[in-house]
Design brief:
The relative contact order is 0.19. The longest helix is centred in the first third of the chain and has 13 residues, at 2-14. Helices cover 9% and strands 52% of the residues. With 151 residues, the chain is mainly beta.
Length: 151
């Protein structure tokens, strides 16, 4: 009888749900054992053009680059507008027009997350229309890995 009581107390103490991927506190989602960091790479590609690529670095330090294209004007990392639903973005502009690349992170599951790069046109210095963007790249994180922005 005493053993049964101890087993029930131990079982009750181990129960609960988890939401915070990094600390294991809270309730709701899975715990991630791995992390993948995404960041932007920008380099000059001739006169008034720049190459942009997505850099994906795993928790062991291995890095893979995904070329996204060569764009007119000056490219810089920006904070995307909330309606873009993006974690990070790059804007390549010349005379208030150009291209915005948005990194949207989808699928917070134990099977992993996906980084979707969306391309939209910038006109008159404003943000692109979220509904007119097109997908140009999709990068799948390894199973069980959480995606974070930055190194």
């Amino acid at each position: 009888m005493l053993r049964l009581a101890i087993a029930l107390v131990a079982l009750a103490a181990c129960g609960g749900k988890v939401t915070d991927k990094s600390t294991g506190a809270g309730s709701g989602s899975a715990i991630y054992a791995k992390k993948v960091a995404v960041s932007w790479g920008i380099r000059a590609a001739g006169s008034a053009k720049q190459d942009v690529f997505l850099q994906v670095t795993d928790d062991a330090g291995a890095q893979q680059s995904y070329p996204l294209g060569t764009f007119e004007g000056t490219c810089q990392v920006i904070t995307p507008k909330p309606e873009m639903k993006a974690a990070t973005a790059v804007a390549c502009t010349s005379n208030d027009t150009g291209t915005e690349l948005d990194a949207v992170i989808e699928g917070e599951t134990i099977q992993g997350e996906t980084v979707i790069i969306m391309r939209g046109d910038i006109k008159n210095g404003g943000a692109p229309d979220p509904m007119s963007r097109v997908e140009i790249q999709r990068v799948k994180a390894p199973p069980g890995a959480a995606v974070q922005v930055g190194a």
